[in-house]
Structures are given as structure tokens and as C-alpha cells.
Amino acid sequence: MAEDPLILNPEGGMPRLLEIMRRLRDPENGCPWDIEQDFSTIAPYTIEEAYEVADAIEREAWDELKGELGDLLFQSVFHAQMASERGLFTFDQVADTMSDKMVARHPHVFGDENRDKSAEQQTRDWEEVKAAERASKAQSGTLDGVALGLPALLRAVKLQKRAARVGFDWPDISQVVDKIVEEAGELAEAREKLTQTEIEEEFGDMLFVIANLARHLNIDPEAALRATNAKFVRRFEGVEAKLAQDGKRPEDSNLEEMDALWDAVKAEEKSP
User: How many domains does the structure of the chain reveal?
Assistant: First the structure.
């Protein structure tokens, strides 16, 4: 390490990180685990790190956010290094591609277009630019380019937005609610008459319509469900705390008692 001042430099910035990644992947002297990885094995870690960034923001854990953003940046560096080894592209080309895209998509900032636009108009302009980009990639279908790797609820909303732009959408939110009732009924019937595969299909249909309702209500279903998960954890921990006051654990209790304690925790949360 004595001959590697860049790697030892605590203020080495991106050049330092890129060199560390190159060294980790070095076939002769690198890390065996890093050398064995490929795009498909690293992709799940990339998704996980993105969620950890979102989690830190959700918790307003600003001290943790720097590290989580670093972890996510490292994923980009890892993929770029593997691509460079194959002669596909370099990290600098990744950065340049992103810069070109942002300049092209913001003519009201970097070009001659009028900046005095509403957020709604800018969103419409953004979609037009992205549609032109898809056309240049021979993605002619309305739903082309919606990433398969997105979380299912998020992808459902994106697919529905694309379809809505060409008029395939319920015009009234009451129709969406009616469809949820219909799907719920079909799911209840499926539970008694259909195979497990068919039941899963009906359940998927209901989730898809619920995602549509979220879109009509301008709700991010992923964010809403994350908030509900957090609320469930908080309240159940409250139930456990109340049981602990009596020297008990959940397995020592029963549903009736825990349900009453749940209501008590809810009431405490809502009290001024």
C-alpha cells in the first residue's frame, strides 16, 4: 500500500474509488469474491442499496444517508468496472451519458426554451422528450421501456400511466373503486373453487387495480405501504412493551388480549 498514495488518500474522491474498484477486480491480486461477480449477481445488491437510501431518507437518518449514498454509488462503480473489462463502456462514459440526457431533457434550463412553465407543463414536456428517446431506440409500443426490474407496485403504476396517456384509463375514480370490489369478490370466489395458481392471478389483478386507485389519488403505493409497514412495527412493538410490563411475551398472550392492547396503543398515538 505504500506505493498507492491515491488509495491511501482520504480526500481522493472519485479517482480513489474507481482505482479501489479496479484493484478489487484485478484477476491476479484482487478479492476472490469481487472477481467472481457479474452483472446478474450484483444487480440484487444494487436494488437493496437503493432501498437502504430510501429507508434512511424515510427515517430522516441524515448521518446514515452519506454512507448509504456511498454504497449506492459503489454499485454504479462496480457495474461500470465490469463493463469496462468487457470493452462495453467506462464510468466516465456513464457520467457523460447522464449529463447529455439531463441537458437534453431540460431545455428550459440549459437551452433557449422559456423557463416560466408550471410543473405540470414541464412534466408533459419531459414525457414528450422521453417518448422521442424511446422512438430513437425503436421502442414504438406504448409500454416499451418500463423496466422489468422495478418493484411490482411501482411498475404497475408506470404501466398504467403510459396506458392513460393514450386514453386507456377509467375517467372516474368511482369506476376504479367498483373494479376493486369486483376483484375482491372474484378473489373470495377463487379461494374456494380455483387452483393456487388461479388464486394468485386473481390476487394480482386486485393489487393491480389498487395500484390504479393509488395513481388516481396521486399516491405513491410503495411509499404508502412503507409507511403502513412502519406503523405496524411501531404499534406491535407497543403491544410487546405493554405485555412486558406484565412479564409476558406475545407467545404467552392470545389474540383477544393483544387486540385490546393494539387498540390501546392506537388510542395513545392519537391522544394529544
Answer: 2
Q: Residues 10-43: pLDDT tens digits?
A: 999 999 999 999 999 999 999 999 999 999 999 9
CB atoms inside a 10 Å sphere around CB 68: 19
- The CA distance from 112 to 227, in Å, is 41
Whether residue 82 lies inside any domain: the answer is yes
CB 239 within 8 A of CB 261: yes
Residue 48 domain-assigned (yes or no): yes
Instruction: Say yes or no to pLDDT of 135 above 80.
Output: no
pLDDT score recorded for residue 134: 66
Instruction: Give yes or no for a contact between 179 and 209, defined as CB atoms under 8 angstroms apart.
Output: yes
The pLDDT value given to residue 11? 93
Specify the pTM: 0.63
Range of the domain at 62: 5-105
Concatenated DSSP letters for 116-166? ---HHHHHHHHHHHHHHHHHHTT--STTTT--TTS-HHHHHHHHHHHHHHT
- Residue % of the chain over a pLDDT of 90: 63
Estimate the crossing angle of helix 39-58 against helix 221-245, to 10 degrees: 70
d(CA 81, CA 33): 15
